[in-house]
Amino acid sequence: MRECFEIRDTDGAGRIGELSVPRAGVTVETPALMPVINPHLRTVDPAALESDFGAEILITNGYILYQSEEFRERALNEGLADLYDFSGAIVTDSGSFQLSEYGEISVTNAEILEFQRDVGADVGTPIDIPTPPDAGRERAEDELETTKARLEAAESVDVGEMLLNAPIQGSTYPDLRASAAAHAYGTDLDVFPVGAVVPLMNGYRYAEMIEVVRAAKGGLGADAPVHLFGAGHPMMFALAAAAGCDLFDSAAYALYARDGRYLTVSGTDHLDDLEYFPCSCPVCADHTPAELRSVSETQRETLLARHNLHVSYRELRTVKQAIREGSLFELLERRARSHPAMVDGYRELLDDAAALERSDPVSKSAFFHLSADSARRPEVERHHDRLGRLSVDGDRVLLSAGGDNSRFDETWRLRAPFGPVPPALSDTYPLTAERPERLGRAGYEAAAEGVGRLAAANPDTEFAIAHWGWPDSALGRLPESVETLLLGPESEYSEGA
């Protein structure tokens, strides 16, 4: 059923899509948040998720239901939609988490898939083996083979209209993740969760998480909806979406509330440490931190969980709007500055700017140069690639940061971080980028790389650059054949972050 996913808008690898879920008769707009519902611990009622937060999809644990004396028969008799009073799509997990935690579960792959079908799950999951980060290579390979076998076996189970997840494992070995993804994509299964990454997120190992996601995405087609298992903190939604993830599941909203923790887009605060709420959601507008501390434990947990959901859904809408208007990288730069590990994740993402460029729109509303990392964005990569394919008129060409010179046959503008700007494109995106006055050395170094691309494509042309005090690190990246002309006194420049 691979036709279940359609992409509407893109920005880098981020995309807004539509996931058609035939059994539920709904279409879920992605990126989408799936709140985790434990039938025994309903911190927020599932019906309220739909009415109060606009939830279109949720996830619950099929194995917990399978074992539950209280809910098993009700789920079989009523179906999950009536049991949870939820009209959207319901995803069920298979017990893989319990398998990773306790080493065994009391159900077979076929049995749990049939149970998920029988309780009315809209998206079911086979029993994969979640190999943790840093596991030995031999273990990762052996467990991946088991996961692959179970995905293949799932194809032969009669699940009706229920979509099926095809989890992608492989620990922290990029080649295994890529192999697992290619194998999963070759099956008839529908949705592709990247599994066993929670320990990376819990350890703030965001760069490695991005490496894992990149490897998995490399083995999937563009029409594959990707679920990042356990990505429930709003501070990382922009990063995960920019890496090409479409679905996130959140138990964090409830688990953090139980511990008195208050989610924000820049991290986590403890209720005991707050004198003021930095949020204007209904919970924060109606209560002060002191008032929330004074209510009963159950009421406090519910109110904190509702706040955590409000901030999570608000951030997801912010991410969608950024994708829609082409400002996802600007949002991501702002979010990345909330934690050093997020900066690591963002820089790891930009390490493969060429891959991001392939799905990045050629025109957007604006390009804001916000930091040294802006010089590595896919728009810069695209411009440099085009420079390597351009030819110029004349034997002597000036690349100038200001002014023409009659000694040259032609003058192009020189604009960091892009480098040479063909006259006909000077008013087009992204060459109209908004930049700070103190640009930072990385922007000039990127511009020098662009000069090198153009010079290499035109070896018979003499090039000169006219600059306002470029740093030595940028001048040192220019080809030896390029003449340099100083337009004025050396200007100050910031080394940037």
Structure description:
By secondary structure, this protein is an alpha/beta fold. It folds into two domains: 347 residues, TIM Barrel, CATH 3.20.20.105; 121 residues, no CATH class. Helices cover 41% and strands 16% of the residues. It has 21 helices and 18 strands. The strands form five sheets. Strands 6-5-4-11-10-9 form a six-stranded parallel beta sheet. A five-stranded mixed beta sheet has the order 16-15-14-17-18. It has a three-stranded antiparallel beta sheet with strand order 1-2-3. A hairpin with a 2-residue loop joins strand 1 and strand 2. The longest helix is centred in the middle third of the chain and has 29 residues. It is elongated and about 90 Å long. The two termini are 46 Å apart. The relative contact order is 0.09. The C terminus is likely disordered.
Percent helix: 40-55%
Strand content bin: 15-25%
Uncertain segments: 490-497
Average pLDDT, rounded to a whole number, is 93
Count of separate structural domains:
2
* Tally of strands: 18
The CATH top-level class label of the largest domain = Alpha Beta
Structural class of the secondary structure composition? alpha/beta
Note the total helix count.
21
CATH fourth-tier homologous superfamily of the largest domain: Queuine tRNA-ribosyltransferase-like
Radius of gyration: 26 Å
From the coordinates shown, what is the CATH architecture of the largest domain? Alpha-Beta Barrel
| Main sheet summary | 6 strands, parallel
Distance between the termini: 46 Å
Shape: elongated
EC number: 2.4.2.48
Cofactor: Zn(2+)
InterPro entries: ArchSynthase1/Queuine_TRR, TGT-like_sf, TgtA, tRNA_ribo_trans-like
Protein name: tRNA-guanine(15) transglycosylase
